[in-house]
Amino acid sequence: MNFLKTSSRSSSSSHVSAEFVPSSRVLVVSWLVVAVSLIMWGLRLWTSGTMTAVAPVPSVILAAGGMASMVVPSFLRRKRAWRIWESFLLVLVIGALFVWAYTQIYADPSYMTDEMAFDQWAAVLWVHGINPYGRSLAAAFSAYQVSPDKFTWTLTGTPVTLLSYPALAFELYAPAIALGWSNQVAVWLNVTAWALGIALAYYAVPRRIRPWILILGSFSVYVGFAEGGVTDALYVPFLVLAARQWDRYPLKQGWAAVWPAIWMGLALGIKQTPWILWPFLVMGFIGEGRRQGMGGQTIKRMVARYTLISGGIFLLPNLPFLLANPGSWLRGILAPLISKTVPDGQGLITVSLFEPWGSGSLESYTILSFVVLVTLLILYPLTYPRLKAATFLLPSVALFFASRSFASYLLMLIPATVVAVATTRPARKVESLVRSSRYVVWAGGIASGVAALAALLLPGSVRLQLTGIHTSGEFAMVDRVTVKATNTGGTVVHPTFTADIGGDLTAFWHPLSGPASLSPHQTATYVLAAPNVGAMPTISSGFQMMLFTPKSETMSRTPIVIPTAWHLAITPDAVNRFVVKGTPVHFTLEILNRWDQPVHVSGIPIYMGQVVYAQHGAQMAQSAINHGYVGETPVSALTNGDGIAQFTVRDLNPQGNPVYYEANLVSSQDSYPYGYSPTVAVRYVP
Fold first, then answer.
1. Read out DSSP for 345-362?
2. Is residue 339 domain-shared with residue 252, that is, in the same domain?
3. Coil, helix or strand at residue 636
4. Are 277 and 400 members of one domain?
5. Same structural domain, 553 and 681
6. Are 366 and 261 contained in the same domain?
7. CB neighbours (10 Å) of residue 15?
């Protein structure tokens, strides 16, 4: 591939000076990976071909574009041609993002997060002259079909229904709402913001970095966040603009010194994550000013200018709500910091959520996060410019230790970080660490260690044990459990319960029996019922029951339970022919473990059932299984020494619809069915 690097050879011919010479192998590989990314986009859209006619043609275009990207750059000789090709690749990636988002919305138009629903509903209220702060936004749940398992829950088991973000988070939706556009406004704005952020980053970085921007923008986690309702995407374009050449800000004058502060102010006005970034950025300006030999007064004026502009831009869209009801507005924008919400996320809290470590003090995570943040705030200026490259990532370091620590806190800062690192000047000279920085490291490390030990080692005040499971039968969901709770602490607690399914906390379960409070050292048995289908774990997946004590902010959990240890394989797994009435069909059922290895155990009953799924509902089937009577279901057979049971089915009076056969095991402890085999349809004919 001949691209990106201009020739250094002199030539009298004008076209020679515009040619490209072969670039580094790393850059060639980078563009090859971009080509592969385009092909992957095409494959991603190809899977939606039977759902919407929008997908097939873009799928082919993207796959073809990816293959062309492996060849075309080798023939590009002029800078203008290469720039056109670069822009074409960017258009392909952004186009793929929008088409993919369309297919996902078409498949499931419901909103995937409560934050996105709240932002759009707040915009609706504001357009109609209603202040959304301090007002319940619960109507957004039904308006945008938000599933209860997507709610943000408090420790008391009630969902968060108040607006929890600065005003610009919903004001961005207002123009579309005012023009009468109501369907999927938030989703499309989110996707547009991510596309804009990638485009701005693409043209902000040096050309040798651009392929990695396209690769980054194509990561599944990012496109999933954009379409799935992680509204951090809204501040990405502004943060990218604020990050470009940020270390040159101390030397800028006039409008050049205004725009970076405006971009930062807009990012501050959307979500709280940029708030934590802001002081690091200001301290970076101070460090750069000193390295440039600027005087103290000049640095103060520069910082004051940036603070006033960014702060003013933040306040401007919030001012009407601040003046109308200061208390409601302040409680709203500080809600993520002061609300007692359930722990969640992919940070350190994961250990307490899944392992038997902690958390007898959820506040310890908050303290730990605060200690790490303060340590970084002190250490950053003392060691500048050693942490310069990580300036835009430092907020995620502190948030990693919070009780609510989501991957988006880190991932959505990476585009701005890449732009910052690619456009700032590396430090040519780094001074030795001053002694005070070592003291900060030791003090912060010790304080963080103490808080971490408290978070990970202090046990919950209630010991929780799962003692029984009740399922919905063939629906294969756990709809009720029995737990035993023992208060090991010295104070009365009022427990609340929920289930953790794959890392997601469901709507809180309702106690059908058991006391509302537990006295010190009291043991009680609770029968808990799932409040909705979304809160029911499947019997084939693992889950654990969680207990919270809202007042003391502690958490307890049962060991992870996987109701299905074995499952059944059926042979044949399909009957691809019509079966004449009365002709026997033989099925072999074999017990397998979770690794699909045969389980050689005899005397285990296997139950085979039959049903007809007619167009207007399920009907009783009329075939005979083994020696059972016509229509009998289920019929059991015992396994032999190889863990195998045999079944023979026949139908003497075909009804026109296929008969569906399925087999299952039954738990010897709780008598719930599990381990269902694949369903086999047999169509009998006269």
1. ESSTHHHHHHSS---S-H
2. yes
3. strand
4. yes
5. no
6. yes
7. 9
Calculate helix-pair angle for 414-423, 236-243, nearest 10 degrees. Answer: 20
Number of alpha carbons in the 13 Å side-chain half-sphere of residue 253: 1
Instruction: Reply yes or no on whether the pLDDT at 217 is more than 60.
Output: yes
Residue 580: strand, helix, or coil:
strand
Structural domain that includes position 633: 567-685
- Cβ atoms of 316 and 127 within 8 Å: the answer is no
Q: List Cβ neighbours of 209 (8 Å cut-off, separation of 6 or more).
A: 418, 422
10 pLDDT exceeds 50? no
| 263-283 per-residue burial string, b: 16 or more CB within 10 A, e: under 16 | bbbbbbbbbbbbebbbbbbbb
674 close to 667: Cβ distance less than 8 angstroms: yes
Degrees to nearest 5, angle at CA 450 with 449 and 454? 115
Identify the band that residue 547 occupies on the pLDDT scale cut at 50, 70 and 90.
very high
- Measured in degrees and rounded to the nearest 5, phi and psi for residue 651 equal -130, 120
DSSP 93-117: HHHHHHHHHHHHHHH--S-S-HHHH
The percent of the chain in helix, strand and coil, each rounded to the nearest 5, is: 45, 20, 35
Residue 275's pLDDT is 96
Task: Give the pLDDT confidence score for residue 12 in this predicted structure.
Answer: 37
> Are residues 547 and 578 located together in one domain of the fold?
no
**Per-residue pLDDT reduced to its tens digit, 586-615:** 999 999 998 999 999 999 999 999 999 998
Residue 546 has pLDDT above 90, yes or no: yes
Q: What pLDDT does residue 480 have?
A: 95
Domain boundary among 539, 557, 575: 557
Distances (CA, A) of 265 to 166, 262, 311, 389: 11, 5, 6, 22
Kindly report the CATH number assigned to the domain that includes residue 504. 2.60.40.2320
Tokens encoding 142: 């039904």
pLDDT at 313: 97
Domains contained in the chain, number = 3
3-state secondary structure of 408: helix
Q: Evaluate whether residue 140 is within a structural domain.
A: no
Which percentage of the chain shows pLDDT scores above 90?
76
Label residue 223 by pLDDT band (50, 70, 90): very high
Pairing between β-strand 624-625 and β-strand 644-650 as defined by DSSP bridges: antiparallel
- Least trusted range by pLDDT, from 64-73, 188-197, 544-553: 64-73
What is the rounded distance in angstroms from the CA atom of residue 469 to the CA atom of residue 542?
Answer: 13
Q: Which backbone phi and psi does 404 adopt, to 5 degrees? A: -120, 105
Best CA proximity match to 294, nearest among 258, 248, 243: 248
- Please, are residues 496 and 551 in contact by the beta-carbon 8 Å criterion? no
Using 50, 70 and 90 to split pLDDT, how confident is the model at 310? very high
Residue indicated by tokens 């009468």: 180
Residue whose C-alpha is closest to residue 207's, from 8, 59, 34: 34
Asked if residue 550 has pLDDT above 50, the reply is yes
Q: Within this chain, do residues 391 and 302 fall inside the same structural domain, yes or no? A: yes
Residue 234 to residue 221: CA distance in whole angstroms: 16
Q: Percent of the chain beyond pLDDT 70? A: 96
The pLDDT of residue 23: 55
* Residue 221: Cβ within 10 Å count: 12
**Coil vs helix vs strand at 169:** helix
